[in-house]
Design a protein that fits this description.
Chain lengths: ~240, ~250, ~475
């Protein structure tokens, strides 16, 4: 699952993920009917609409052995919320539970399913990592991305102060309360720049959209990249 | 205006509608709290030295001042030293039976009047006089019912001869205790609280206070200050030899 | 910063808070400090997680038999010589207290910190009835002098500078006092000591009420909780029905985690157990104890979607970690209870419509749920509130249209792919050096503060054919 944000705005992330998986011997398919996991609708309370998308998504990935997602939020949506959303229909709910068990955020897939911790990549530089809220708290994952980053030969991983603090994206929150979202972002980016890192890494398209948008607005020399891009050696 | 019956009926109706979506169980209470309390006391008869060390460490962490003397006879001297240090002129104290010793004569000999709370006179005049004394006093001396090591907390029951204000109004509170008062954990305190309330004779007052260090606040720009309303300093005098005071259970 | 009118839209109040430089600094320092204290406290406390699970379980069990526990509580309070009153609404609670003041000739009442009394706006009612309420918690005293409302559940005057506090307390002292915390605290001690000794009535809330024994429990640090429950001749405790717990053993579980969650202390300085008025053998204590059990919208949620919010211990931990609260502070929320739990409590007390803006004052980051000592799933309930707001057609029309369109696109891959091509066309006038810097309409809300990446020249699905 590529995610709607990566498909539209960060296709390099999707390409990097495919490259990375293939390099580790995984055969990759992209069910072309996919669009969005429905989280934006769900978070704004449009539960019925989210339910329809969930039903659709569950059917779409019915044949996939593993569903790998370069996004903590989307993975969380599938794993945690889909079964509840589809609870009204026992058959669908069963499908959703089976899908949840086969769905993985990318870093978790690499470390837990493939057993990979050392990725060979030409990427070099000083990086700092931001914990996306849904990956950290929803899926309980903070170690896998750091393990993967710190074990890269050319990478120096510097811990980000307040790494576990929200970047201020929150989906529609960023346009409903834009000033508050921007104030939260500013605090985050001040912390990022203080680390002296060249590159800010995250595992979520929403966070990256928010943080890269802020970094470029303040003409920072820090680049924001997705973990997949760093691991695949994408220097773009 | 709501009546009790209507109020409770509405709640009962709502409760009946809801189902438990989450695990629900209250804590397991001791089946025989009085016996459980005695068992804790027996345990502490062995473990009191470790508990005392822990108590001291925690008490000092919350800015308590710890003293240790060998015998009850040395307590008045320790109190006088504290009082002198604070330039105190008046002292109030629990009555000697509750304290386990009589501070009156030794302190009077040093020029420090002690007003001990009289246990049997609760007339309006006595109450008013007592309040004035407590409000004027610089030092208040109390006993202790439980000294909780885990948090450095002193637990005091109110009652006849053991007024609430002695540990509240004066700027310096001095608490005197011995090994029999020590317990280790908050969990044990839970058992003791069950026991106290299971025994109608155990309390003569309506209030229990847990005291963990001196009164404090950080309400002004998060700057920590002490002695907002309650005492600015809390002293604990541990006496090696058991005091003559009443045992809890 | 003066009390903002609740009629202004929430986003305006939030923006005003963002522009308040001192508030921003104070909030940053205070919340960061509380976060650190709490974290340190739980790091050294391995039993903490299990106790939190247990605490939640106790709250849930209590709700399952709430009427029984309240019955037992009331019976035991009365057996200990106290009076129990039953208030369906805030108004009834106020009326009970005013009647007591009239009947007992109360002219001045000292108050210990109580969110329940804030909730019912008691002070204003007392003043109108000619009774002088005096807040005695230092933070509450300060804001009372300033004619403001608290901005944080446990640190009500977080938004005030030392200089502002000095001015307020100096006025009472009728002498200029230095802007020094020690000096000001000492002055407040003297000013309030007089009030404690003269007051006719002491008013408190209740952190807990133990049904098994009829005990009201107060958790404080300053000593004012002890003063107001021992010196005046009448003690009134106002308590939401959600505060009752079954036994002393249950209480020990909560005491183990409450202060840690609020301020990182193992226990607060004073935990005070009040079981009825003073005994005849006591020299001190109130002659009368009145416990007011208040519903004010709570029972409506026992079987409702906000049921979990009834577990709340009012510790403030969720405020301290909330990225939104940390930026805008408590006043911007415009209601008695701010922060994440405040949104839920406001909905509980005032109805869903009252939070149609506030329900979206969250990025759903989940930090609140992470730190809640009783594991309240605040984000889930915020989403449910948003759902009700949407269903009740309270949300603005444009928003519903935007989401409807989004849904349509997401249900059809062809439409989705087409929207990318349309997006690429529409964005051309706005793209500068590979970024979108200024966009019209609601998208301008994004670009006011940050760039937007453009729709990619080739989306992933367009590139897939080269990759497969």
């Amino acid at each position: 699952m590529i995610t709607c944000l990566a498909d539209m705005f960060f296709p390099d992330v999707g390409v990097a993920m495919v490259t990375l998986l293939r390099r580790h011997g995984v055969s990759v398919d992209f069910p072309e009917g996919q669009t969005c996991c429905g989280m934006p609708l769900f978070n704004s309370g449009y539960r019925e609409d989210a339910r329809e998308l969930a039903a659709r998504t569950v059917a779409l990935f019915a044949q996939s052995e593993h569903v790998v997602v370069p996004s903590g939020s989307c993975a969380w949506m599938l794993k945690t919320e889909y079964p509840d959303l589809l609870a009204g229909d026992p058959a669908l709910r069963g499908e959703a539970e089976r899908l949840a068990a086969r769905t993985w955020e990318l870093s978790q897939f690499l470390v837990q399913v493939l057993g990979v911790t050392d990725v060979d990549s030409p990427f070099a530089g000083r990086v700092t990592y931001h914990d996306s809220c849904h990956l950290l708290r929803g899926l309980g994952e903070s170690r896998a991305p750091r393990t993967l980053l710190s074990r890269m030969k050319g990478v120096e991983l510097v811990e980000l102060p307040g790494a576990d603090e929200c970047c201020g994206f929150g989906g529609s929150f960023s346009v409903r309360l834009p000033e508050v979202s921007a104030a939260i972002l500013e605090k985050k980016l001040d912390n990022v720049e203080r680390t002296g890192a060249d590159c800010l890494v995250a595992c979520d398209g929403g966070c990256l959209m928010q943080m890269s948008g802020g970094l470029s607005r303040r003409q920072s020399r820090v680049r924001a990249l997705h973990l997949a891009q760093v691991l695949a050696g994408d220097q773009s | 205006m709501a009546t009790r019956a209507q109020f409770l009926a509405r709640i009962k109706a709502e409760v009946a509608k809801s189902s438990g979506a989450f695990p629900a169980s209250s804590a397991a209470r001791p089946a025989r709290p009085l016996e459980a309390a005695i068992a804790i006391r027996r345990q502490m008869a062995e473990r009191w030295p470790e508990a005392l060390d822990r108590f001291r460490a925690e008490f000092e962490k919350v800015a308590g001042v710890f003293h240790r003397v060998s015998t009850s006879a040395e307590v008045p001297g320790a109190v006088i030293a504290i009082a002198r240090d604070k330039s105190a002129r008046e002292v109030v104290a629990w009555d000697p039976a509750s304290l386990g010793l009589d501070l009156g004569p030794p302190l009077a000999a040093s020029g420090l009047p002690v007003r001990a709370a009289a246990p049997d006179d609760t007339s309006e005049t006595a109450r008013r006089r007592h309040r004035d004394e407590a409000a004027r006093a610089d030092v208040g001396v109390t006993g202790v019912d439980v000294a909780l090591a885990e948090t450095g907390t002193l637990i005091l029951l109110s009652g006849a001869g053991r007024p609430r204000s002695t540990s509240l109004l004066p700027a310096t509170h001095v608490a005197v205790f011995d090994r029999r008062h020590l317990v280790e954990s908050l969990e044990q305190v839970g058992v003791l609280l069950e026991a106290v309330h299971a025994d109608p004779r155990a309390t003569s007052g309506a209030m229990i206070n847990f005291i963990t260090g001196p009164s404090r606040t950080a309400d002004i720009e998060l700057t920590l200050t002490r002695g907002v309303h309650g005492p600015k300093e809390v002293h604990a005098i541990f006496v090696d030899e058991p005091l003559g005071s009443e045992d809890w259970s | 910063m003066s009390e903002p009118a609740v009629e202004t839209p929430f986003s305006d109040r939030a923006s005003a808070a963002l522009r308040d430089r001192f508030l921003q600094e104070a909030l940053g320092i205070a919340t960061t400090k509380f976060i650190g204290l709490r974290r340190e406290s739980f790091d050294g406390f391995p039993q903490g997680d299990a106790l939190r699970d247990q605490a939640r379980s106790i709250k849930e069990a209590t709700l399952e038999r709430l009427d029984e526990h309240l019955t037992r509580l009331a019976d035991n309070v009365e057996a200990a010589g106290g009076h129990v009153h039953w208030a369906d609404t805030a108004q009834e609670a106020r009326e009970i207290i005013l009647r007591l003041c009239r009947d007992k000739g109360v002219r001045m009442a000292v108050k210990s910190k109580s969110m329940a009394t804030e909730e019912i706006e008691l002070n204003e009612a007392l003043e109108r009835a000619g009774v002088t309420p005096v807040e005695t918690d230092l933070g509450e005293y300060i804001i009372q002098l300033a004619h403001e409302k608290p901005s944080h559940i446990i640190a009500p005057a977080i938004h005030k500078t030392k200089a502002q506090v000095a001015e307020l307390i100096s006025q009472v002292a009728q002498a200029p006092l230095a802007a020094d915390a020690e000096v000001l605290t000492a002055a407040a001690r003297v000013q309030l000591r007089e009030k404690f000794l003269q007051a006719d009535m002491g008013i408190t809330g209740a952190n807990f009420a133990v049904a098994e024994t009829g005990t009201v429990v107060l958790v404080t640090n300053e000593g004012n909780g002890r003063m107001v429950t021992s010196l005046p001749r009448i003690h009134v405790a106002v308590m939401g029905i959600d505060k009752v717990i079954p036994s002393m053993t249950d209480l020990a579980v909560f005491l183990a985690i409450l202060a840690r969650s609020a301020t990182g202390q193992k226990l607060s300085v004073y935990t005070t157990f009040v079981r009825g008025p003073r005994r005849s053998t006591e020299l001190e204590g109130p002659d009368e104890l009145h416990l007011i059990l208040m519903d004010n919208g709570r029972s409506g949620q026992i079987a409702g979607p906000l049921r979990e919010a009834l577990y709340c211990l009012r510790c403030g931990a969720c405020l301290n970690v909330c990225p939104v609260y940390r930026q805008i502070g408590g006043h911007a929320y415009g209601h008695t209870y701010p922060g994440p739990i405040g949104i839920l409590l406001t909905a509980m007390l005032n109805g869903t419509e009252s939070v149609k803006e506030l329900a979206h004052a969250s990025s759903l980051c989940g930090a609140c749920k992470d730190v809640c000592p009783v594991r309240i799933d605040i984000p889930r309930m915020l989403i449910e509130l948003r759902q009700h707001i949407g269903e009740e057609k309270v949300a603005p029309r444009t928003e519903r249209v935007v989401f409807r369109v989004f849904r349509r696109l997401a249900m059809s891959p062809a439409a989705f792919a087409l929207s990318a091509r349309i997006g690429r066309l529409l964005q051309r006038p706005f793209a500068r050096a590979g970024r979108l810097r200024r966009l019209p309409l609601f998208l301008g809300r994004w670009t006011d503060a940050r760039d937007l990446p453009p729709v990619a020249a080739r989306t992933f699905r367009e590139r897939w054919k080269d990759l497969r």
